[in-house]
Amino acid sequence: MSRGKLTQIITACTVVAVVAIVLFSVRPWERTPSGDIHTLTTVVSPSGAGSVSPASGEYEHGVQVTLTASPASGYTFDYWAGGASGSSNPVTITMTSDKAIAAHFAPAVREVRDWHDLHAIRDNLSGNYILMNDLDSTTPGYAELAGNSANGDKGWQPIGASDAPFTGSFDGQGHEIRDLVIDRPDEDYVGLFAHVAWTHPVKNVGAIENVGVVNARVTGHGRVGALAGHSAGVVSNSYSACSVTGMGWFAGGLVGYGDGCLVTGCYSTGSVTGTYYVGGLVGRMAGTRTLREGVVIRCYSTGIIAGATRVGGLVGATHGDVNVSDCYFDGSVTGRRWLGGLVAENYGGTLSNSYSVGRVTGGEFVGGLLASNLWGTITNCYSSGAVSGESPVGGLVGKDDHGTVGNSFWNIQTSGQDASDGGTGKTSTEMMRLATFIDTATEGLDEPWDIVAVAPGERDDDSTWNIVDGQSYPFLSWQPAA
């Protein structure tokens, strides 16, 4: 081998050795393709509900970071989302890439045990509350907060206000609030809660559930209800058994004015007296298609309801996109104009699978189920109570104007009315026959009665309506036994 060739071989080996040393020291196979630094970003939801430590930063590949969520006053940590998951706190993550992590917090649940606790709700109107026991005249705080002489003889000060609504949650857990006194005849937004609402755009929705207002005396001017003067939130599984008086507009046994409100599984058995828009459960329910629908479902009223204009056994009036379904009334309605056993005036709403067996007595525009139906839809309903008044008056509907009334009936004997502006009149015997209500689909209405016959004392929960054939009027399968 020539000296030149040997030199070339030695040089090549030297280069290989140098490269090997460099590679071993640098170890590129241990480096990430995009570099060894990753960015951690953390956020808090909702804003201001707490903090995360560390908040953010840059970390080498493979480094473990322990994150700790710290709730602000009135909140509790809920869960992690994004680059971390679960509810463990603190949580440890490994930085193998850029990560964005959200810490979610929830309002803390606060217990209400006496009138002082109930009064303190106004200090945090977006909080979550649970009622731990009944409240009555023997509970601490009653005399100075909820009795006759409280607040300058005005009684209870409603929680919230028209411009500061309650947007949290209140769960009564089946307990009752008793002996409440509110005497504010010159004030609007009157009730246990003044204003239950949702914010715009929707962030929180005020919700009240599982509570009864019993043996209370509630008096206000406008927007008056035992539970809420005004509600644009949710009221469920709640009831009132007390007297409600409204000196002006909108008085209801449970809610004075419902604005895109959901009322479900509720009832009222007390008396309601008002002037304009008076209802056994809700004084007036409004809804619009651009915001949210007003809904009253699986509710009833059995009280004495009296007023001047637009007085209904369940709802004084509906306006816009409102749905009243699976409801009934069994009481009495009296007034001057626009009086209905279930609803006085239905303006563009829908009434379905509902009935009234209550007495309706008044002047103009009187109906056993509905006084006036303007551009609304009535389907699968009936009425059987006594109806008396001046023209227009109807056994089922007093006056229908551009609306639809289908698959609906009234008793021509018990109502004392042989005419109605919509619906079909039947005798008492016919009103107790299953055959009257089956196969009754009206053209343009594709839902016939969902009704089955049952034995006395039994229920078929799979059907909307039950009937003891030949012995009873149709009744809703969910309703309490007589």
Helicity level:
under 10%
Task: Give the strand content.
Answer: over 45%
Got a strand count? 48
Overall form: globular
How would you describe what is shown here?
The protein has 482 residues and is mainly β. It has a 10-stranded parallel β-barrel. β47 (465-467) and β48 (475-476) form a beta hairpin. The radius of gyration is 33 Å and the shape is globular. The N and C termini lie far apart (118 Å). Mean pLDDT is 89; it is low at 1-34.
Summarize the SSE layout with pairings.
Layout: H1 3-26, E1 37-45, E2 50-53, E3 56-60, E4 64-71, E5 75-82, E6 91-94, E7 99-107, E8 109-112, H2 115-119, E9 128-131, H3 142-145, H4 150-153, E10 169-178, E11 181-184, E12 193-196, E13 207-220, E14 224-225, E15 228-231, E16 234-236, E17 239-246, E18 249-252, E19 255-259, E20 262-264, E21 267-268, E22 271-273, E23 276-279, E24 282-287, E25 294-297, E26 300-301, E27 304-306, E28 309-312, E29 315-320, E30 322-325, E31 328-329, E32 332-334, E33 337-340, E34 343-347, E35 350-356, E36 359-361, E37 364-367, E38 370-374, E39 377-383, E40 387-388, E41 393-394, E42 397-401, E43 404-406, E44 409-411, E45 424-426, H5 428-431, H6 434-437, E46 451-453, E47 465-467, E48 475-476
Parallel strand pairs: 1-7, 8-9, 9-10, 10-13, 11-13, 12-15, 13-16, 13-17, 14-18, 15-19, 16-20, 17-21, 17-22, 18-23, 19-24, 20-25, 21-26, 22-27, 23-28, 24-29, 25-30, 26-31, 27-32, 28-33, 29-34, 30-35, 31-35, 32-36, 33-37, 34-38, 35-39, 36-40, 37-41, 38-42, 39-43, 39-44, 44-45, 46-47
Antiparallel strand pairs: 1-3, 2-4, 4-6, 5-7, 47-48
